Amino acid sequence: MAESTGRRGPRPDAAHERGGAPSPDWEQLERWDRAYYLHNVQAQGQWPWLAVERQAGNYLYLSNGASLLDFQSQLISDSLGHCHPGIYGEITRAMERYGHVFFGMGHEYRARAAKLVIEDVLGGERGWAGRLRVLASGTEAVENCITLARLYTGRTLILTQAHSYHGLTVGATMLRGYRNNLTPGGHPDEVRDVPGFPAHGYIPIPPPEHADYAGPLPLPSLVATEHIIRTLGARNVAAVITEPMFGAGGLAPHPAYMPGLRDLSKRHGFLWIDDEVLCGFGRLGEWFGYQLHPGVEPDLMAVGKSINGSSLPCGAVVASKAIAEFFDQARWWSGSTWDGHPLVCASIVGALETMLADNVLERVRARGRYLRERLDHLAARHPSVGRVAGHGLYHAVDLVDAQGRPIVAEDRYTAFLGDLTDHPNNVVARECAARGVFLGGFVPNTIKVGPPFTISEAEIDAGLAAFDAALSVVDARWC
Ligand SMILES: Cc1ncc(COP(=O)(O)O)c(C=O)c1O
Fold first, then answer.
1. Rounded CA separation 372/292 (Å)
2. CATH number, domain with residue 323
3. Reduced to 3 DSSP states, what percent helix, strand and coil does the chain have, rounded to the nearest 5?
């Protein structure tokens, strides 16, 4: 794959970027990586060697001399492009003074990061948010939200949506959706779940209706969810956890869904955990996805990715004022070596100060409108495009066959069985990569268009030209 991937052309002087250091031996590195690294998602034998030599701006420069326009911000994560000076400058300055400081001590960057999030982004006194804790990943933020919700309410059950994704540690895996299962070697059609799945305490609820749902209201998903709540007994439910727009599943919920779900949680007296790891900090054209729905605010929020442009491993929890106050009075035995790491907090400070100074929301909205207009043009010309849905700089494109059905029938219920190489998402990824663009999807029929906030209109045109060509291949094959 690497040989046919990327666009060759003028590129920055790589040796200069390495400070004159000699070029690494990429063949040797490939042998070590194949021999010793514990890869995920693909079996070892299927692993494509797609090595990135360096990154800059919105581009990845590959070891084979080619480059890729990153039209997906890696995992819809690297929101300010790669190696943004506003972030890396702050990390570099922090490194002159700090290594690791354990959570029992304070430091400059933890205080500044908390002030930026709670006061400058979330409105301080006027807002709902009380406190921030900085952790090592979005998954850890989700785990902490669940524990906080259970300790605060004294209840066990967590409602979790089909098609959702919240991370792959043992607890987060139990949150339904894409769940750490194994397809054993030699058994391409077998699903082997992590023993113990599904676990006590995690209750699946239906996925939301799509944004273009035109059926009756109230939404059937919310009616079914309320039946589940009544069956379980609301007094046993600690929280519901949702994504504003699904990251892995690429599903933009109907606009009535989030307000309706929040109403359910208020009427039945349980918490709402809003997982904003992928959508938070600007991706949907608002600081957070919940702000697309006026009057709706969460109790707990898990964030990550864009909080520091994914420059260093990071996640964080935001607790409401009421929950923060409850834990202020208590002694909670929690913590990790990495809580509030100075360099990670410096990366948050760098990213948020850059985003605030550059008025990032305006930029995301303007570029997002441009992107959506052009995606709608593509949809009008390609019969394989069944739906375009999203906000800001995150749009999901669902691919269908000549009858308008999902090309891979399991669609978002996929367990990733059989030969995946010919799934439409992988066909699109290959065709785009051959044209110098990094773009694909996670579930088989959905392409996730999520370029960095630093993308220009010309780069949007370039990314979509590759996608256009890839869609012609999909049309010819399935429509
Ligand atoms: C919505 C959502 N929650 C949680 C996670 C897990 O975050 P991390 O990969 O930083 O552990 C992700 C990762 O993609 C995500 O999209």
1. 17
2. 3.40.640.10
3. 40, 15, 45
Do residue 47 and residue 156 come from a single domain? Answer: no
Distances in whole angstroms, Cα of residue 200 to Cα of each of 16, 18, 178, 186, 424: 56, 51, 18, 31, 35
Residue 445: phi and psi, rounded to 5, are -105, 10
Closest CA to 100 of 345, 341, 350: 341
Burial of 119 (0-12, 13-18, 19+ CB in 10 A): middle
Q: Which of 72, 76, 78, 139 has most ligand 1 atoms within 8 Å of CB, for mutation?
A: 139
Of 357, 379, 402, the residue at which a domain comes to its end is: 357
In one letter, which amino acid is 372?
A: R
Q: What is the total count of domains within the chain?
A: 2
Block residue for tokens 């060509």: 469
pTM: 0.95
Side-chain-side CA neighbours of 352 within 13 Å: the count stands at 23
Mutate to test the pocket of ligand 1, among 273, 305, 306 (most ligand atoms within 8 A of CB): 305
The upper half-sphere exposure of residue 395, i.e. CA atoms within 13 Å in the direction of its Cβ, equals 26
3-class DSSP string for 68-105: EEECCHHHHCCCCCECCHHHHHHHHHHHCCCCCCCCCC
| Residue range 176-187, pLDDT digits in tens | 677 777 888 888
Residue among 246, 278, 301, 308 to mutate when testing ligand 1 (max atoms within 8 A of CB): 278
Domain containing 215: what range?
87-357
Shared domain check, 60 and 196: no
Check if 368 has its Cβ closer than 6 Å to any atom of ligand 1.
Answer: no
Q: Which burial class, exposed, middle or buried, applies to 227 when counting CB atoms under 10 A from its CB (0-12, 13-18, 19+)? A: exposed
pLDDT in tens, 197-232: 777 899 999 999 999 999 999 999 999 999 999 999
What is the three-class DSSP state of 371? Answer: helix
The Cα 24–Cα 54 span in angstroms is 12
Ligand 1, atom 8, residue with closest C-alpha: 138
How many Å separate Cα 142 from the centre of its chain? 13
227 alpha carbon to ligand 1 midpoint, in Å? Answer: 29
Are 158 and 238 contacting, i.e. CB atoms less than 8 angstroms apart? yes
DSSP calls for 372-401 = HHHHHHHHHH-TTEEEEEEETTEEEEEEB-
- When the pLDDT of each residue in the chain is averaged and rounded to a whole number, the result is 93
Distance 283 CA to ligand 1 centre (A): 14
Gap from CA of 308 to ligand 1 centroid (Å): 14
Share of the chain above pLDDT 70, in %: 95
